Amino acid sequence: MILIVPASKTARRTPVSLDRFTEQVRSADDLASIIGTPSALAVKKELPSLDEHMRRFIACSPFVVMSTHSADGRCDASPRGDAPGFVHVVDERTLLIPDRRGNKRVDSFRNILETGSIGLLFLVPGFGETLRINGRAAIIRDEAWLTPLAVQGRRPLLAIAVEVQECFLQCAKALLRSKLWEPHQTPDLQGLPCAAQMFADHVQMPEYDVAAMQTLLDESYRNNLY
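^ that's the sequence the OP posted. Answer follows.
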């Protein structure tokens, strides 16, 4: 198991000064005057529940970014990934996201306990558009619901139940600009240290130098996926 020591609450909540930016947009009216207003098409694409297209999209998706926030406004975005369709569609208003083994920080869980709000961004490799879902969330441990979510004989201890409140497809412009799915578009990684180096620098624990951290990562990735 990867043990990452979080920063203190004081450190995490120390704001980065935004005062250096003197031309800040501070109202919805100002924003509309700069950006304009959405077209009828952009407004009407939002649905209150999942249709068949969206259900199929989720069935093809192996990766989702899960966004939550705490009662005091701290935001968190957490990746979740598994075989395509790992997020279970219960019905047109309900999803189940199994919680696989991780580092036990449970940032998302804590936020859900505090606010019950969630946002999801589903990606399908090779597909330009993404699927956005916003709604309410609860942490569940019902055996009857968790058992079908088992992988390699291991049932998740918990899952996140999501009540869909709004959902819509996001256009492909961001993925086209980033060339995310284009072959041979891997960015130049020269100068980017390995993950073990970054983790070791972040935690500043003498017993976890780069070599020890790499061993820990390799063991965790090999033995603790499920």
